[in-house]
Model the fold of this input.
Amino acid sequence: MPLSFAHLRGLISRMFAVVATMVVLATDVAAQPVMTNIFPPSEFAARRTAVMQAIGDGVAILQGTIERPGEQPFRQSNQFYYLTGIAQPRVIAVVDGRTRQTSIYLNRDSHDRAYGVPSLGPGDSAARAIGVDVVAPRDSFAAALTRLATERRAIYTPFRPEVLGEASSGDAQGQARATKSDPWDGRSSREETFIAKLKAAAPSAEIKNLDPILDSLRGTKSEREIAIIREATRITGLGIMEAMRDARPGMHEYELQADAEYAFKKYGSYGAAYFALIMSGPMTLTTHYHKNTRVLQDGDLVDFDYAPDYEYYASDVTRIFPANGKFTPTQREAYTIYLRLYQALMTSIKVHAAPRDIIAAAVVKMDSIMTSFRFTDPAIRAAATAFVTRYRESRSNSLGHTVGMEVHDVRNPTQTLEPGQIFTIEPQMNIPEHNFGLRLEDMILITPSGYENMSAFIPVEIADIEKLMKEPGLSDAALKMPIKQ
Done:
């Protein structure tokens, strides 16, 4: 299918939008001497200052993750990266609340073999480059800890297992518990081992959990973090829309995954934020099916939930579309009432409000929508009624889950929704009588005046979805590529 002028113009417009966004991001960070070039040193220094204020006379000690086995790209653990911005293996950071100084202890001759480039070494120039007070060899950390031990101050360190991407802290904690309780394994986590060594080296010091302090900071995103998450969401949307354009009966679910991953890598993502949840036909009745091997059938709906790990931050968006590009009358009725109820919840979101109060306000809107909606299918009416009832009877003070460095990020630090908090809403409505389920998901940023739906540009209305799906997909372009003899 040849590319139309309108489609070509759309491609060019999207390219200019990409360039503009990248320029805005690069203006602030490209010239900064942070090893990862994501944020300037001042961003991490401000976070460490907040930690110093929280620990008072204490000292925070964190260890970075280890190098990757084999030919795998290195990714720092989230808690360590959040406080330092350093992406090198086996680094130790000491943040001193009394002296208000930060010391970094690096491996001698350490290098990231996946990239084959030398790491930053010890010295004053290194300290200036990353905005800390001291950069010293890692083998000098033992002497520094011995000096701290004589002062009998509290030592703060992360207790939770590290998260390296494509996971959330709950996942890492679950794996650590399973490993430790396994009679044929029984290993402690790196954090438990590190705590034991700290206790042995400083027996008079009280070892305290640093995670709650870091979590309280991570729960509210800075302007720079919001810019990165907004870009991660833009990339997510581009991936989802590529899958929409490409979808057709006879394709495997994993082929749509490939469409999204093209966009993820095209715009610089490290990888995926979580495994691809691409559910077609009856698999849409589930929420976390991820085999992605089913063949799309004519008349199937596709539930597409996938996002990248971009510059240490995640996104999380879900869209629903018909495999053949056209909703059936039954799908149209079910999707329309679901979407209207979903929008009733979203439009009830307010800054400084508690989620339970938002839910109560949304239910009033939902009741009105249910009264005015013209149902023709009893099964759809029953599913929509059950959907509203779940919210009416809800006692939860949550609308969904937070998103940040992890796709299921740390909890919001407040009981009300406050500026800088980011979360998703993703309610499910199943119609088992018709063998499909419906689930949308959007990225919500709380602002001083209300909220911003960062994923609003990704089509949700039936007419917009069907229009987009008429455009050529990546498979159309691949079929037109000449084969070299």
